[in-house]
Amino acid sequence: EAKYNPQQIEPKWQQIWAEHKLDDAPEQEDSRPKFYALSMFPYPSGDLHMGHVRNYTITDVIARFKRMQGYRVLHPMGWDAFGLPAENAAIDRGTTPSEWTFKNMAQMRSQLQQVGLSYDWNREVATCAPDYYRWTQWLFLQFLKADLAYQKEATVNWDPIDQTVLANEQVDNEGKSWRSGAKVEKRKLRQWFLKITDYAEQLLQDLDKLTDWPERVKTMQANWIGKSVGAELSFPILNSGNQEAIAVFTTRPDTVYGVSYVVLAPEHPLVNQITTPEQAATVEAFVAEVANISEMDRTAEDKPKRGVPTGAIAINPFTGNQIPIWIADYVLFEYGTGAVMGVPAHDVRDFAFAKQYDLPIQYVIVPNGTAAGEIPKSLSQSAYTESGVMVNSGDFDGIDSPTAKTKIIELAEAQGWGKGRVQYRLRDWLISRQRYWGCPIPVIHCPHCGVVPVPDRDLPIELPQNVEFTGRGASPLAKLESWVNVPCPTCGTAAKRETDTMDTFIDSSWYFLRFSDAQNSDTAFDFQKVNDWLPVDQYVGGVEHAILHLLYSRFFTKVLRDRGILNFDEPFKRLLTQGMVQGLTYMNPNKSGKDKWIPSALVDPKDPRDPDTGEAIQAFYTTMSKSKGNGVAPKQAIAKYGADTIRMFTLFKAPPEKDLEWDEADVEGQFRFVNRVWRLVTEFVESRSSSSPQNNSPDEKGNRVLRRAIHTAIKEVTEDLTGDYQLNTAISELMKLSNALQDSKEKNSAIYVEGIESLLRLMAPFAPHITDELWAQLGHSESIHLQPWLEPDPEALVVDEITLVIQVNGKLRGNIQVPAGADKAALEAYARNSPIAQKYLEGKDIKKVIAVPGKLVNFVV
Ligand code: ANZ
Ligand code: ZN
């Protein structure tokens, strides 16, 4: 018999499947239910890594299982192909972003094919291809028409040496440029935004519909949206003739009687107007200083809060008190109204600020049960942030603070001091990038007409080809006069193209829609088709996309639904976030102040030492990465063991959501199992052809045991693939069945054939090549992947037999073997038909039958 040789059979089957178009989704709807299985598409960096392999294998198993179950399945793949690395490669190596990207895509496509993933390659999309981004541009124009795209000034990173805008990824931790090393400055530029804040409430509410999403992801999204319910209150400025007032946003109107001061963000436009001459110099210096601190540092709880008084005074309309107006670093201009009422007694940051600058601290809420007129001593040490009973708050004294919150908002509205307000942390989506390798924003700036959308007939606005990449100066697009200068589509005057390109998150916010109709050159997708295939039934990807990608995709879906382009409002019905693949990692801690990572290729695992110094080093598992030298290349692993073993291993080693340790010994173990299956089947095929098939003296008991093993495997594997995707335990079930077959003594019986065929069919989604090969060797002419999924026979599942006692008038007359799960009626029937009953009951009149399941049947005569 032939040895298992994955290197020979895997490419063979991959080719056969492609020739027979086994994995193509049907173009037309048919009566079968649809199933859309999708993995998050990769960035074409050049090489597939193990994280990809794991992600795609999980989805592939589900897709293959669903096909066998009789679904029409859409399982596509594509490339998230715009983005900075291609441009950097062009700058560094004299290639072009396009060349580099398409070369990488070709390389990764062939690596994907080696894994045996059942993709419909007819639907492949690359976001950087004009036939794709034409529709990205069209979608942008839909947003523009819906008033959901607009321009405003925003801050960008500016490299003063290279004279160019930098993406956040191009700025290191010390705030320096990746190329020039210059200290990066902030600059204001007019940029494009999408109005995602219009959908904040819906994006939050509809998380409740996503019952098959991980709770963790939904919580992350909810926090990102960050809804706060409170009020906007107005504090008039003294001596402005009540003309000017400062609006603050607060979630705690119940603390308004305890306000000690008002704080503006240093960027607030009122700052210049109200600062007194005595304070002008101090304020100006402070504003300049804060301009260079990051938002993170400004708001961190553990950083000291700093500020200066403006010299101006505000009035608290609730108390009539005069309070100072400050500016401080911890108040952000972009959130709420950019101004805060300071209540040191009840807010942690305000407390720290008041301590620092010796501002008054007035408690207006005390814990429930506090004696009237008393302020507990313990309070004075910190801010009291809980709810409680109102004190020092005029008419509100004595009521509980949540009720007071509502009443104070009512009072403010009645008096014109403010109103209730809901605030979201989510901000509008800045989509402008001053880069070349992205989707051009399809508008033209005309001196007469202003912003003019490019007419649909002129799409796509293609990226120009002959561009120079130096990494210096304006974006390559902005420098290309011949591309920038165009006549206005409306009036014909000399006008200029927009030179910003779109954030690549836009490209990935609709690719799952395009897959439904990827080759359409008339529209982004046919209405019928997109609404047939979508929503995605199972989406699988990394938790690193839990917030932005998923939120943006949900936003796109809702906007397109509101424009009548889609008829569903959530794109991903069910989400699985797979864990990381970890590699054995070697580290020599603290070499000249830094941990030194030592590539595993340079280390003997039995005695790990630093190859440079000979020192013993640490060994542990952590996420595979280039910088740690702990990765295992899929290509090499497949060359050694074959794709089927790699697939089985990544699925078996850990449940899909958990991290997985790449342990060579366990890969070997999986390889041995795959080999065992190979031998089991090939030996059977051989024995069958050498000895004439005979089925003499079937071993009743043995058959029953084997049948039970077969149908238990069918039942368990089906459940594991249906519920929470317990793919690891599914493989354990396959191993059990394989053991049962090995133990079977009747290797020539019909039941044995059922056993090996069932094993192969259950294993087909996991190890598609070897199973199709062995299936063919068993004499089948049609691919195993076209076979229907198996259904368990409940009868075969019956656990075991029990001994049933038969009594007549309470007297023991004998016993028989019956199936363990039999109910009362069945037990009675078994008993009546038994020779014992026939003997003792002959000619008797049965008055009553008492059946006790699992125990006895008593005939009363
Ligand atoms: C007075 C107050 C008293 C506050 C109190 C809290 C506790 P979230 O929940 O995150 O929305 N705030 C408002 N705008 C701000 C800004 N632009 N920069 C920094 N802080 C700002 O937080 C809302 C609270 O954060 C608001 O409620 C305000 O402080 C502060 F016992 O107002 B609070
Ligand atoms: Zn014009």
UniProtKB/TrEMBL annotation:
One Gene Ontology cellular component annotation?
cytosol
What is one Gene Ontology biological process annotated in the Swiss-Prot or TrEMBL record? leucyl-tRNA aminoacylation
Where would I find the Methionyl/Valyl/Leucyl/Isoleucyl-tRNA synthetase anticodon-binding domain in this sequence?
704-824
Q: Which UniProt keywords apply?
A: Aminoacyl-tRNA synthetase, ATP-binding, Cytoplasm, Ligase, Nucleotide-binding, Protein biosynthesis
Give compartment(s). Cytoplasm
> Which Gene3D superfamilies does UniProt cross-reference here?
HUPs, Isoleucyl-tRNA Synthetase, Domain 1
- The Methionyl/Leucyl tRNA synthetase domain covers 40-172
Cite a single GO MF annotation: ATP binding
**Ranges where the Aminoacyl-tRNA synthetase class Ia domain occurs:** 426-582, 624-663
Q: Which reaction does it catalyse?
A: tRNA(Leu) + L-leucine + ATP = L-leucyl-tRNA(Leu) + AMP + diphosphate
**Where is the motif ('KMSKS' region)?**
623-627
EC top class named in words? ligase
Q: Which residues form the Leucyl-tRNA synthetase editing domain?
A: 223-412
What is the residue range of the motif 'HIGH' region? 42-52
- Superkingdom of the source species: Bacteria
Chief location bin: cytoplasm
EC assignment: 6.1.1.4
Annotated ATP binding lies at 626
The record's family statement is: Belongs to the class-I aminoacyl-tRNA synthetase family.
Protein known as: Leucine--tRNA ligase
The organism of origin for this protein:
Tumidithrix elongata BACA0141
